[in-house]
Amino acid sequence: MAKVSKNNAGAPRINIGISDKDRAAIAAELSKLLADSYTLYLMTHNFHWNVTGPLFNTLHTMFMTQYTEEWNALDSIAERIRALGHHAPGTYREYAKLSSIAEPTSVPDAMDMVRLLVKGNESVAKTARAAFEKADGANDQPSADLLTQRLDIHEKNAWMLRSLLE
Question: Which segments constitute the Ferritin/DPS domain (predicted)?
Fold first, then answer.
């Protein structure tokens, strides 16, 4: 029977073909993505609750579609961090440190909400792209696949929101 390598806590060491150093670097980038994604989720949900004006129904519905998708993605990102052997950030304090998205300090008007969500989705896409480079460089296909999916969603959301501003 083959001997199983164990860590200091006695649990089997992770041996998935990605070095400890690369797993840590990818997990760090995914943690930034999780923080950006959670911040964008919260902003989108806030705007869903507080939007007013002639485009109320359109924006209320669009924001709900987007925040629901964003909420569901959070679990996949956090679980990938855990699969790489690291703890996923899960507090507002951690997210505030890691996120590249500035939260609004007041409730903006409807078109400013759209502008902020365009910027937020673009920020998440940039964060996902940086994480993709780490994952791809380490031959981490599951993380790369997750990141490709997130890029597709956030670039599409940014385009749809941007279209409302033209």
Answer: 28-166
Confirm if 98 and 27 have CB atoms less than 8 A apart.
no
- In angstroms, the Cα distances linking 136 to 33, 127, 128, 165 are 16, 14, 12, 35
Q: What is the CA radius of gyration of the chain?
A: 18
Q: For 1-15, 59-73, 84-98, which range has the lowest pLDDT when averaged over its residues?
A: 1-15
Query: What is each CA distance from 142 to 32, 77, 79, 101, 146, in whole angstroms?
Result: 17, 11, 11, 25, 6
Sketch the domain layout of the chain as residue ranges: 20-164
Helices 110-137 and 141-164 sit at what angle, rounded to 10 degrees?
160
Topology (CATH) of 20-164: Ferritin (1.20.1260)
Q: Whole-prediction pTM value? A: 0.91
pLDDT tens string 84-126:
999 999 999 999 999 999 989 999 999 999 999 999 999 999 9
Contact 21, 15 (CB under 8 A): no
